[in-house]
């Protein structure tokens, strides 16, 4: 590849031809601040924060859009550049709601950080503010345009990552806002509620709908037995909220912290993941054996479920009917667990700690109260969980590692842990299905073809002489070609795992928000890969790594459910899906 030689701040730099000044600088370890730029997604230059000076240039240029050229001399911190950046940020601040102390993004806000770096202490420009819109009608996402900086990152994320494009610039000039079509609520459009727009928003204009107040109320209600469960991916991100390195695995501290918050039982959703594999694996075998609808799609990701209900309703018969792991565990708590402990299910309050904003809408699905009660009462994201722990004064970093409660639902296998990574559900299912069909313990449980960050991963798998093709994908832009093949009847696959967020739950919309300075820069191994590694490391540590080997799962079927796919299992652990309208105007 052709290279270009240039100087940045007097330092000789060699860059690839076609790279921008920003890319060349960051590869050389030279930091240039940005706001609207998001690596691989958007680089409009609209915010004018990444301004640089090029020798003999008449005007300052945006580093994220200006290509390098041979012999170019760039200055990133000249007096002229710093003045230009300050003016850009001050103009943005002039139309910004500055209630920083009460904002969820306080101390993790990119605009706040820019003001600190540039020494902005006063309001240089003051005047009229754009009339704000506030939307909190959906289950998961809150939109507050008084904090929006019009960077467009949410718009491009929705369009380029999820292929939906439900967000856009509404109105013109000073009245411009970012909104769904006709300034509709997120509740009235074909939104996945995945939250990728939230984790890519640089400020507090898009946030998750907070449910901490309801959980605190339940914890302080003496008539309630409050049970919490934590999703696999949370353990790989929660530590970041307390200043720990990206990808720190905090399983033991997380269990200890939640116990100190006053929950009556602390369970791991991994038990529900093992249970999901038993049901989903059985469903796959039934379809293969008895000529059911194939390929079968996984159904663990509620964002993906919302997408297919809106965009491909004709493919709904391909979805597994198995509920997601936390919904299965919630149903078991309010049936089997309640019965064994002699507690009325109406007095049980189940809280799920999830990496996913779409889980907040999932728990309100009318199909998910087959025990006679709502399977799960509240969902807190990883970020909300951290706020709850801090609110209760728990010194997270100082906690000893503790295990989860062991009664009835305390065991889990390594297969369950990897549910949080793209390909994990597929690998977990293959472990159990292959072991069952082979009729002996697996000598090798790792299915490496399912792993990694590729948009689509595929493999041919031998199941005791029967060969099937499997595919793994995450994000809807990556999934769409596979869906089109299924729609056209040309798909070669038997089983397809789909996750709504790129990389799976480790990059869910409810996870700890990584500052763009790290996202866009050089991190060595990427933040998604670091979180993914934490889950695979825990999987490798487990004595049992195949879901069907979980003794408590075996006892649950023996003492209560009967067998996978039984009438009772179908009632409590399975659900159905319905087509949805794209817009309600």
Brief sketch in words of this structure:
The chain has 585 residues and is of the alpha/beta class. Helices cover 33% and strands 14% of the residues.
Number of helices: 19
User: How many separate domains?
Assistant: 3
Helix-and-strand structural type: alpha/beta
* Largest beta sheet: strand ordering: 2-1-5-3-4
Return the average pLDDT rounded to an integer.
95
Helical coverage, percent range: 25-40%
Low-pLDDT sequence parts = none
CATH architecture of the largest domain: 3-Layer(aba) Sandwich
Anisotropy-based shape: globular
| CATH class group of the largest domain | Alpha Beta
As an assembly, this protein is single chain
The CATH topology of the largest domain is: Rossmann fold
Number of strands: 18
Describe the fold and architecture:
- This protein is α/β, with parallel strands linked by helices.
- It folds into 3 domains: 3-93, Ubiquitin-like (UB roll); 100-208, 2-Layer Sandwich (Alpha-Beta Plaits), CATH 3.30.70.20; 213-573, Rossmann fold (3-Layer(aba) Sandwich), CATH 3.40.50.1780.
- The protein has 19 helices and 18 strands.
- The chain has a 5-stranded mixed beta sheet, sandwiched between helices. Strands 12-11-14-15 form a 4-stranded parallel beta sheet, with helices on both faces. Strands 13-18-17-16 form a 4-stranded mixed beta sheet, sandwiched between helices.
- The longest helix is centred in the middle third of the chain and has 21 residues, at 270-290.
- The protein is globular and about 80 Å long.
């Amino acid at each position: 590849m052709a290279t270009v030689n240039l100087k940045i701040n007097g330092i000789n730099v060699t860059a690839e031809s076609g790279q921008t000044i920003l890319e060349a600088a960051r590869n050389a370890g030279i930091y240039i601040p940005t706001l609207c730029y998001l690596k691989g997604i958007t680089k409009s230059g609209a915010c004018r924060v990444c301004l640089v000076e090029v020798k003999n240039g008449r005007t300052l240029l945006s580093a994220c859009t200006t290509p390098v050229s041979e012999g170019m001399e760039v200055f990133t911190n000249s007096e002229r550049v710093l003045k230009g950046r300050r003016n850009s940020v001050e103009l943005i601040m002039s139309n910004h709601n500055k209630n920083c102390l009460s904002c969820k993004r306080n101390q993790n806000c990119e605009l706040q950080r820019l003001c600190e770096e540039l020494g902005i202490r006063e309001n240089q420009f003051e005047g009229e503010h754009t009339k704000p819109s506030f939307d909190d009608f959906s289950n998961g996402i809150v939109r507050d345009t008084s904090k929006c900086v019009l960077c467009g990152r949410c718009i491009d994320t929705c369009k380029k990552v999820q292929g939906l494009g439900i967000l856009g610039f509404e109105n013109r000039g000073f009245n411009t806002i970012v909104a769904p079509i006709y300034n509709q609520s997120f509740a009235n459009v074909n939104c996945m509620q995945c939250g990728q727009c939230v984790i890519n928003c640089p400020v507090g204009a898009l946030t998750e709908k907070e449910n901490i107040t309801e959980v605190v109320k339940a914890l302080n209600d003496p008539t309630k037995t409050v049970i919490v469960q934590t999703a696999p991916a949370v353990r790989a991100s929660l530590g970041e909220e307390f200043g720990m390195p990206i990808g720190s695995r905090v399983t033991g501290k997380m269990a200890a912290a939640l116990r100190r918050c006053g929950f009556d039982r602390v369970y791991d959703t991994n038990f529900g993941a093992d249970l999901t594999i038993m049901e989903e694996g059985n469903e796959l075998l039934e379809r293969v054996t008895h000529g059911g609808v194939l390929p079968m799609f996984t159904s663990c990701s509620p964002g993906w479920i919302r997408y297919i209900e809106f965009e491909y309703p004709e493919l709904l018969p391909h979805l597994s009917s198995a509920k997601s792991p936390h919904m299965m565990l919630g149903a078991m708590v309010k049936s089997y667990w309640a019965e064994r402990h002699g507690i009325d299910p109406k007095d049980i309050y189940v809280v799920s700690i999830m990496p996913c904003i779409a889980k907040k809408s999932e728990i309100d699905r009318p199909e998910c109260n087959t025990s006679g009660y709502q399977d799960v009462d509240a969902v807190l994201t990883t970020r909300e969980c951290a706020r709850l722990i801090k609110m209760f004064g728990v010194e997270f970093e100082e906690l000893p590692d503790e295990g989860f409660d062991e009664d009835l639902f305390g065991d889990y296998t390594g297969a369950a842990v990897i549910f949080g990574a793209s390909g994990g559900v597929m690998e977990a299912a293959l472990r159990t299905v292959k072991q069952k069909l082979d009729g002996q313990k697996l000598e090798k449980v790792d299915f490496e073809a399912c792993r990694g960050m590729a948009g689509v991963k595929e493999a041919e798998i031998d199941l005791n002489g029967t060969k099937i093709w499997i595919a793994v994908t995450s994000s809807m832009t990556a999934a769409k070609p596979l869906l089109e093949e299924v729609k056209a009847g040309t798909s070669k696959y038997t089983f397809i795992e789909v996750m709504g967020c790129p990389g799976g739950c480790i990059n869910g919309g409810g996870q700890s928000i990584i500052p763009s300075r790290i996202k866009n820069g050089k991190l060595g191994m990427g933040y998604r890969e670091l979180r993914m590694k934490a889950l695979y490391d825990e999987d490798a540590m487990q004595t049992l790594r195949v879901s069907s080997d979980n003794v408590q799962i075996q006892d649950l079927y023996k003492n209560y459910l009967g067998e996978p796919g039984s009438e009772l299992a179908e009632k409590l652990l399975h659900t159905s899906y319905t087509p949805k309208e794209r817009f309600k105007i």
